[in-house]
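REQUEST ID: PR-0412
SUBMITTED BY: lab tech R.K.
PRIORITY: routine
TASK: structure prediction, single protein chain
INPUT:
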Amino acid sequence: MTTTVSDQQLREFLVRELPVVLEQDDDVRRLVALLGAEQFADKHETESRFDRVLEELRRDREETARKWDENARKWDESARRQDEVLAALRDHDRRWQENARKWDESVRKWEENDRKWDEYHWQLDEMLKAIQAQAQKHDRRWDENQRQLDEMLKAIQAQARKHDASIGALGARWGLYSEASFRNGLKAILEESFGVEVLNVVEYDDQGEVFGRPDQVELDILVRDGVLILCELKSSLSKPDVHAFHRKSRFYEKRHQRQADRRLVISPMVAPLALKVAKELGIEVYSSALDVEPEGPAAQP
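STATUS: complete
OUTPUT:
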């Protein structure tokens, strides 16, 4: 009777018995090796392949390490740059915050200055209003004072005109009286003490040679031992008075056909220009009758 063995049973048998047979039987071991040579590499080839795999693994590991180092270096560089950027950003943020703080401080100061300026401007307006009110008050007072001063000035001017008229009249009268008194006193002294004849001559100028129109011409004449002296007594002597005396003396000399030995004017008040004109015309000027020298022209006072 024939026994049938299944594939599974045969596989199980080989798995169980083959290792023992391979260990005990060299022929079977060589046969199995020969059969598996096409499917499996031998030891030398296996080692060679393993070495190649290891070398590839080593190269891959070195390349991976190199790339890793490169990536690490790039990462460090990127991190360093990132740190620099972050530091710059932090510094920029710090500066921005500082500028913002300064700006806020400036805005606060501006607002404070604006407030102070508004307050100062308000105070200035109040002061201006007060000054304007005071000025208006002063203007009213000034106008009133000016009106009163104008009235006082008009009254003073009226009184001054009145006094001037009175003084002028009094001065004219005093001048006339003083000249007459002086002439009378001089006449008495000269005639009684020095034997001089004193004459007051009044002649009529019908041709108007002296005053530009017909009028009387009055002169004082001193005569001693044939010496003729024409004299003028004035309370005050001005430049026109000197010219007038010069014309009167020339009128007298022409009419009487006689040259005066001396021409002199006696006056307590003499204007500077009168002295200059008198010197040019050869007229002696004295401030007092006692200054008159007996002979020759006197020194001008």
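NOTES: Residues 196-291 form a domain with the Trna Endonuclease; Chain: A, domain 1 fold (CATH 3.40.1350.10).
REVIEWED BY: pending
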